[in-house]
Amino acid sequence: MPLVFRKGDPVRTESGETGEVLGWRVCLEGGKWFFFYEVETPSGTFEAREDLLILPEDLIEARLEAEETRKKESARAAEYNASIVSIQYTHDDLAVFRVKPDGAKATYKPGQYTTLGLLGFESRLEGTQKEEPPTDGTTMVRRAYSISHRILDDETGELVPSGQDDFYEFYIVLVRDNGEGNPAPGLTPRLFALKEGNRLQIGKKATGHYTSELMGENTKTVILGGTGTGEAPHMSMISQLLSDGFEGDIVCIEVARFRHDFGYLATHKKLMGRYPNYHYVGLSTRDPDIEKKVYIQGYIGDGMLDELLGYTPEVETTHWFFCGNPKMLGVPQTDKETGVESYPTPLGVIEVLEGLGHTADRGRKNPGNIHYEEYW
Ligand SMILES: Cc1cc2nc3c(=O)[nH]c(=O)nc-3n(C[C@H](O)[C@H](O)[C@H](O)COP(=O)(O)OP(=O)(O)OC[C@H]3O[C@@H](n4cnc5c(N)ncnc54)[C@H](O)[C@@H]3O)c2cc1C
User: Which residues lie closer than 8 Å to 65 by C-beta, 6 or more apart?
Assistant: First the structure.
């Protein structure tokens, strides 16, 4: 192990004598260059070749640790371009992260996403699935995140148009465990170990086709359905609709296991109190007092949405946005050999709505009024 001795280091010689390094010089011996250290001992000062001197174990460890820290700091400085402004926890496994990039924010359309990344050597939150084998320290663990939005100013309660803040807001759930036999979740166990002020990497651009631009001019009803954090892009879209003075109905439907998973509930309540055309529906599926589980598919298919609105959303004037769990969406798959399209099981919201005459987006050439974003 190559060790560099420094002035003042306590050292031991091969013969067991202890002393302190006073200085050094480089000398040629037997055709090789060596460091020779001047060492002061109780019995006098002498000169010893580098490989004949030993540092105490704890000092070696401290030196190695300091070197590791230095390497990490320099990797962070080279790779990270943003800081955590705040982390507002809904509970231990769900939080709103505000992240400020070093330079200007990228311009984005409500609904788009960017990426967040942390280096593999960053610590993982305790109680999360262990990585076997551990991720290489120099690997950037990067994932996509929809750009969310607070909608209302924290202090004044005024509407904040999407994109106006100097930070990005992200609504993120901690994936603790990917299940036995599957690789451990890479990023969220590291993200949830961060504190305010910590550094991370943010994508330089925002991207994605899932945006409020998909709405036509004659839109009268906008329904936004999300599973858990699938609500994030809708927060930006809602803010834009309200700031633009959209007068049609806006319905935000969120499904989560428990009511305590509705991270933006307070904001939705305030919006409902202020805008008669704004409706929020929170569907929890695992609270003990739930008599019957209702998912977004059932809420629409069984007529509850029509009841809430007092009319049935029309194909020509309605745009549907769904984001999150692929099972909720049920995106139709095309058989590569036969070209035949079929819906997956269990029943997804796309099948329900296409059964009612609406059409899912199938690329630019075949647009529809049902738009969706799958999170995995
Ligand atoms: C376009 C896009 C936008 C996204 N936006 C968000 C967002 O705003 N907020 C967010 O929390 N996630 C979002 N995701 C998911 C995100 O990219 C990561 O997959 C997620 O944070 C898990 O990362 P991980 O490295 O910890 O786990 P991974 O190793 O990537 O494990 C992936 C597994 O975690 C589970 N999982 C992934 N995302 C979620 C989720 N949101 N809720 C519940 N289980 C999940 C699934 O079982 C999936 O198979 C988005 C994904 C895409 C493709």
Answer: none
pTM of the model: 0.93
CATH class of the domain comprising 212-374 = alpha beta
38 closest CA partner among 11, 59, 56, 63: 11
Site to substitute for ligand 1 among 90, 94, 143, most atoms within 8 A of C-beta? 143
Whole-number Cα distances in Å, 254 to 143, 296, 305, 365? 23, 8, 13, 30
Protein residue with its CA nearest to atom 21 in ligand 1: 188
Rounded to an integer, what distance in angstroms lies between the CA atom of residue 347 and that of residue 179?
Answer: 24
Positive or negative, the CA dihedral 106, 108, 111, 112 is negative
Q: Which residues line ligand 1 (CB under 6 A)?
A: 113, 143-146, 170-173, 175, 178, 185-188, 228-229, 232, 373, 375-376
Work out the average pLDDT over 8-19: 89
Q: For the domain 77-202, what is the CATH code? A: 2.40.30.10
User: Is residue 258 very low, low, confident or very high in pLDDT (cuts 50, 70, 90)?
Assistant: very high
Residue with CA at minimum distance from ligand 1 atom 11: 172
- Written as six digits, the tokens of 262 are 């509705």
Centroid of ligand 1 to alpha carbon of 182 (angstroms) = 15
Name the residue ranges covered by the structural domains of the chain.
Answer: 10-55, 77-202, 212-374
Do 77-202 and 212-374 have matching folds? no
